[in-house]
Amino acid sequence: MSSTTDRPVVRSAAWRISLWATLAFACGTMVIFLFLDRFVADDIQRRSDAWLTGEVGTLGDVAERTPNDTLYNRVVGEVAELAAREVPNRLPNQTALNDSVFFLQTTSSGVLKLWVGDGNAQDYLDAIRSRAMQAGQPISIRVRTTPVPYRVAYTTISDGSRIFLGLSERDEVRVLSNLRFRFFLLWLFLVMLGFAMVFLTSRRMLSHVRSITEAASHIGHSDLSTRVPTSKRNDEIAQLALTINGMLDRIENSMHQLHTITDSLAHDLRSPLTAIRGQLETFLSSTRGGDHADQIVSVIDEVDRLTDFLNKSLDVAEARADALRLRASEIDLEGLLKAMVALYEPSMSEKGLKIQLHTEGPVKIIADEGLIHRVIANLFDNELKHLAAGCLVTIRLQEADNGAAIIVCDNGPGFDSEIRSQLFSRRVKGKDSRGHGLGLAFVDAVVRAHGGTVEASNLANGGARIVVTLPLAFVTVTTH
C-alpha cells in the first residue's frame, strides 16, 4: 500500500528520445549540407578558374598581336574592360566594371607596364609578388587595401612580359553566403520538424506505457481484479499489456489461494484453541477446579497468548507479502487515542505507570480502523510489558507533512543496543522480554501496508521513542 502523495517526478522519456533522435538527425543533415556546401564552393571556384584561365589567355593573345606603340595601352585596356563585363556570378544590376576585376601587365624584369582596375596598382603587384605562381594555375591573393581575396591567373607572352588577370572572390562569397543562409534555414526547419514528429510520435507511444504504469501502480493496492488497458494494435506495447495482465491473473489466483490457506489454517488452529479455552473456563467455574484454579488460569493465559501469537503471525506474514486485507474507512485518531488511553489507564495505574495524551485537535485519516486499533494496542502493551513502576508514558498526536504522527515516548531504560537495528523484525525481542517478538513487527507491517512509516530510537536523556506516521489518505482498498 502506498500513498498517492509524494510521488517522484517522472521525466518524460519522450523528451530524451526526441532530443537524441533530433541530435542524430541534425548531425546527419549538417554533414550532408557541409558536403553540398563544399561541392558548390568547389564548383564555383572551378568556373571562376576556368573563366580566369580562358580570359587571361585571350588577353595574352591580344597583347601578343597588338603593336607596341601608342595605341597598345588603349587597345589592350579596352579588351580588358570588355572581359570584365563577362565576370561570372555577378548580379545583373552590378554595372561597375573594374571594382571586382583587374588587369595588370609587367615587363620581363617585373616592372609595371599596364594597369586596368580600381585602386593602387602597386598594392596588387606587391600581393602578386608575395606568392609563388605558375602560368595557367590560378591562386588566391590578399591585397592590403581590399577585405576580400582575389583569384589571380597569369600568362607569359613572347617578349617576356606577364599578363595578370584577377577576379575578386566577393561575388563567390556572396553566392556562398546566400546559399549557406538558405541551407541553415532549411536545416533548422528540418530539425524542428523532425523533433516535432519524433516527440509527438514517441509521446503518443509512451502515453500507452504511462497508462499501463498508472493502472499497474494501483493494482494490488485497490483491487487485484483490475487490469492494465490493452489496445488493438499488435505491437510491443500491446504485447506488454497482455503479458502484465496474464501475470496479474496468476498473482490474483495465488493471492486467492494464499487467503484460502491462511483462513483455513487460522480456522483449523483457532477452533481447537477456542475449544480448549472453553473447557478450561468451564472446569474453572465448577467446584472441581478449586484446587487447581491457579494452574487453570495460567493455562488459559497461555492459550490466549498462543491465539494472539497465531493472529499476529498470520497478519505479519500477509502484510509482508503485500496481501493484508484492508477495510478502509475514515478514522478520528484523536478520538481513538482518547478511547485507548481510557482503556489502558487502569492497567498502567495498577502497575504504577502514568500515561499522558497531548493532541493538537482532531486528525482524521483513511485506514483500516480495526488494524490501527491493534497497532495502538500493541504500542501500549509494549509499554506495559517493559516499563518499571514510576515511569511516564507520553503520547502526542500531531499533523506532519501530508500525514498524521503518533509519537509515543517514555522515560524507561530504552531499547537494548543489541536489537536496536532489528526492532521491527519478526521474533526479535529483548533479553528480558517474555513476548514472541511480534508486537513491533506487526506495527511496522500494518503501518507500511497503509503507506506510512515507523521509527524507533532511544532518547538522549533516557527512554524510548516510537514515531508512527500515517498518510491522511491512501489508495482506497477493497476486501479480496
Tell me about this structure:
The protein is of the alpha+beta class and 480 residues long. It folds into 3 domains: 13-176, PAS domain (Beta-Lactamase); 236-319; 325-471, Histidine kinase-like ATPase, C-terminal domain (Heat Shock Protein 90), CATH 3.30.565. The protein contains 9 helices and 12 strands. It has helices at residues 13-65, 72-84, 121-129, 170-218, 236-285, 293-320, 333-351, 369-386, 439-449, and strands spanning 101-106, 112-116, 139-141, 150-156, 162-168, 328-332, 354-359, 364-368, 392-400, 403-410, 453-458, 464-471. It has a 5-stranded antiparallel sheet, with helices on both faces. A 5-stranded mixed sheet has the order 7-9-10-12-11. A hairpin with a 5-residue loop joins strand 4 and strand 5. Helix 5 (236-285) runs antiparallel to helix 6. The longest helix has 53 residues, at 13-65. The two termini are 14 Å apart. Mean pLDDT is 77; it is low at 1-10 and 475-480.
Strand content: 15-25%
> What average pLDDT do the residues reach?
77
Ends distance = 14 Å
Order of helices and strands: HHEEHEEEHHHEHEEHEEHEE
Q: Can you summarize this structure?
A:
This protein has nine helices and twelve strands. With 480 residues, the protein is an alpha+beta fold.
Task: Considering the chains and any ligands shown, give keywords for the structure.
single chain, 480 residues, Beta-Lactamase, Heat Shock Protein 90, 5-stranded mixed sheet, 16% strand, disordered N terminus, disordered C terminus
